[in-house]
Write a structure and sequence with these properties.
The protein has a domain at 48-246. 17% of the residues lie in helices and 17% in strands. The protein is built from two helices and 14 strands. It has helices at residues 31-81, 109-115, and strands at residues 105-106, 157-159, 161-163, 173-174, 184-185, 188-189, 194-196, 198-200, 202-203, 223-224, 252-256, 279-288, 291-304, 309-313. Strands 8, 11, 12, 13 and 14 form a five-stranded antiparallel sheet that branches. Strands 1-3-4 form a three-stranded antiparallel sheet, with no helix packed on it. Strands 2-7 form a two-stranded antiparallel ribbon. The termini are far apart. 38% of the residues are buried.
Amino acid sequence: MTTRVTLGSSSAGGTPAIRAGGTPAVRAFTLIELLVVISIIAMLVSILMPSLSKARELAKAGSCLSNLQGVGRGLVMYQGYNRDCVVPSYNMPRPGTYTMQAGDVVDGWAAILEHAGLVLSSKAPTNNIFYCPNTLDINGMAGGQTGYDQDKPQGYVDWPVQWLAAGSDGATKGPPTLPIPGFGDMYGPYTKQMRCGYYLNAWSPLGTAPAAGAPVPSCPYYTWSVGFGPYDGGAVLPPVRAPAFARPAALIVACDGMYIGRQQVTHLGEQNRRIGYRHSGQPVIANVNGTSMTFDKTVANTVFADGHAEPVHNNDFPHGNVPAENTGRYSLLADQ
């Protein structure tokens, strides 16, 4: 009978250990050998984890940028279907008014695009093209302004949205129950809530009536709230037309963040900022209400008026009230 021998398995005197029936015995790992293997695995995991974490972050940033590219296509198609008019930030519920009353509902640009079938999305609030994967679960505008809270600009706003109290941007808001009788557009009533994790470069003046006899101004940004007023002769803000844009490829339309407006506070650390820097880039040290803070999330993915999208770093994002910052590669101003 031939016997197979397993290396390292032996009995006293160097004879291979054989179980009954001719099967060689298998030696178990010693405690030291087991600890060595565990240590090697732990070391490999510690080496790989940063790379895996970075890969996940890059995947989320790529998904966000893809979202905004889809939004950009929808915005361009909206212009094509509406004689060069761009999407409103929202439509005033009672044209010719300058403030919201408790119970007023506004549609919002994301709901308008989705309802028109130009940017398709699912019914799941967080599984839609208007929601960056890094969006924080915070309704940033529910209680009014963002203040110095560094998380709120990385949150979301729901469209349509209902004013729970009279006022302007600072009033409390919440999602309405849909559908609302009599509320909708040419495509019928809104039946879906869009949870939007992106900011829109829009001017939506609320709370202060236009000066008596003042004519309708030109839009300083990408769009505004259609129906605001009244201006001279009872006129209200009309839709904005894209041919008026000086540099469509430089004009910021939407980016990581939430809600609209506040173009004068766009950098990390500034009060009532609505731009949400959700993606990793070169770290930034900023003063936040007297406290120095270091930020690692310093990039906002951004879509432009010509439909293309690209990431923009905090240091390069312009302020709307500083014209010199709007003459370069990026601009918040429609006429620059």
